[in-house]
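Please, is this right?
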Amino acid sequence: MRIGIDLGGTSVAAGLVDDAYKVLFRTSGKTAGCKTEHELFVVINKCVYDLLEKSGVSIDDIKSIGIGCPGSTDAVRGVVNVADNLPLLNTPVVKILNDEFKKPVLIDNDANCAAWGEYKTGIAKYHENMVMITIGTGIGGGIIINGKLIPGKENHAGEIGHMVVDIHGKRCACGRIGCWETIASTRALIDKVKSETEHVPFTILGNVVSENNGIVNGKTLFTAMKRGCKISKSIFSDYIELLAVGVMNIIEIFRPDMIVLGGGISREGDTLINPLREYIGETSTRIETSSLDDNAGIIGAALLHLK
């Protein structure tokens, strides 16, 4: 058995993966409040220890640990050079985890891990040319061509969230102006909902936010849409257009067999994917949502030894 860790700007999840590539047990923790590297690894380590306790499996029975990290990740040196939404800067992640658990540790970009998981055992199985788009705090990408993950120079390939799509747009956490993730990430969608409910609070959308004690998350907009909220439908229509801009660029650049959308928003399934397909129009590239849900990154990280 192996452990896969999926690290994100909002949360971290760890899973126990068997030889059939199934997640047997899973734990998670919050990373959004972590201000220092030490705080972050306290959360990550606890997640792994909780997983071992929950499963009743000894660390001695674990063959390896894989971790997918956002941002610029050097898989050869085992280092995260920089992560826009986490306190990681030239951080020797592999060494830190190896020192803690005394097991072989492998690392890659989180979207690469999600792509690898979908390719090895998910909806993209047998599709040797595919692109994974992970939508969350930011937008990540994993690219598989002829059955191989494409790392690019310094393992930077696939940073599709930082494609510049609006030179007059918002400043991104990376420092540039108009990156795709500033308008099409889940965080961007949440920010739009917050702005709308602050300016026009007495709507169906505002009621949904109030019912959730003022908390806005990735589900808020979709809940309001299901109640017939016209404002929410308008926000979503605009969002699909912004999401489609990047997806169409990716199709034209790579012409993959399949594009897979992952991240929490992908759980909306047809509600998300059908209007996106309709906006993009006819294409030979299949556009799907993840079949592994939140487990794609975990499975892919656990299977990094198969790269």
Q: What stands out?
A: The first strand starts at residue 2 and ends at 7. Residues 225 and 232 are 6 Å apart (CA to CA). The domain at 126-290 is CATH 3.30.420.40 (Nucleotidyltransferase; domain 5). The longest helix spans residues 230-254.
